[in-house]
Design brief:
Blueprint lengths: L1 E5 L6 H13 L4 E4 L4 H13 L3 E5 L12 H13 L3 E10 L7 H18 L3 E6 L2 H10 L7 E3 L6 H9 L2 E5 L7 H7 L7 E3 L21 H12 L3 H15 L5
Parallel strand pairs: 1-2, 2-3, 3-4, 4-5, 5-6, 6-7, 7-8
Helix pairs in contact: 2-3, 8-9
This protein binds zinc ion.
Zinc ion (ZN) binds next to loops.
Length: 254
């Protein structure tokens, strides 16, 4: 399997080798390390250099946009993409309309500019959308993101949004909410399996007292197992299909 979206670079360096080992034992072949800031792009690139299994996403997260995007930042992002052949996606970019998020003008500009970058570099986009699905899809369409495709990350929306995302040439990325969100469990039955990819969005979760419960790429197994139960299909077949979907989407992966 390929975990198409994680924040593994936020884990302590000393933990990463064990996290990788546990992921491999659970059947994870590749882990994509998404970035959120310039600093995390650098960390992510370093990890992809150190570990065969890790590939990088480059991008600025809408929640972390402290300043408007400018030429200097864009040049930097572009150079990150060009310095390593392990950059396989522009991620994590998007829109977040929760309260107390960065100014919307700053978010829109950063999103548009980073989509332009991905189209220019022919890199798929793995995007974030919170309380902003219609606007996120509008911007992706206007900026011709269908030329590169990618996935809507941490999908929890309804079938109508899923269909719009697929029509735009993107996949639906399913994460841990599938384990207990019964509405999502019903929605996923209506999504074509050849448009589904899997992710954990793994990141340190100090608010959970039990370290065992922190999300790691190894939990991709649990998500695939749940999906096989919901769709009443063989687990191996589900893992193979979602792997092939991810592989096709991230064509630069090998
Ligand atoms: Zn994320």
């Amino acid at each position: 399997m390929i975990d198409i979206h994680t924040h593994i670079s936020e884990y302590e360096e000393t933990e990463i080798i064990q996290i990788i080992k546990r992921a491999q034992s659970a059947g994870v072949k590749n882990i994509i390390s998404a970035s959120t800031t310039i600093n995390s792009c650098e960390k992510s690139l370093l990890l992809s250099k150190q570990y065969d299994i890790i590939y990088s996403g480059i991008g600025l997260h809408p929640m972390d946009l402290t300043n408007p995007i400018n030429e200097k930042i864009l040049t930097k992002l572009e150079s990150f993409c060009k310095t390593s052949n392990k950059v396989v996606t522009i991620s994590e970019i998007g829109l977040d309309f929760l309260e107390n998020m960065p100014d919307r003008k700053i978010q829109y500009d950063a999103f548009r500019e980073q989509i332009k970058l991905s189209v220019r570099l022919n890199l798929p986009i793995i995007f974030h959308s919170r309380n902003a699905d219609i606007e996120t899809l509008r911007i992706l369409k206007e900026e011709q993101a269908y030329k590169v495709g990618g996935a809507m990350h941490y999908f929890q929306s309804d079938i109508d949004i899923a269909n719009k995302v697929i029509d735009l040439g993107f996949n639906i990325s399913i994460a841990k909410p599938l384990l207990n969100n019964t509405v999502l469990q019903e929605t996923v039955k209506q999504i074509p399996l050849n448009n589904i990819v899997l992710e954990t969005d793994a990141a340190p979760q100090p608010f959970k007292k039990n370290r065992e419960k922190w999300t790691e790429p190894r939990h991709l197994y649990n998500i695939s197992k749940k999906l096989s139960e919901i769709l009443n299909q063989d687990l191996h077949e589900i893992q193979k299909m979602t792997y092939e979907n991810s592989y096709k989407m991230l064509s630069k992966i090998y």
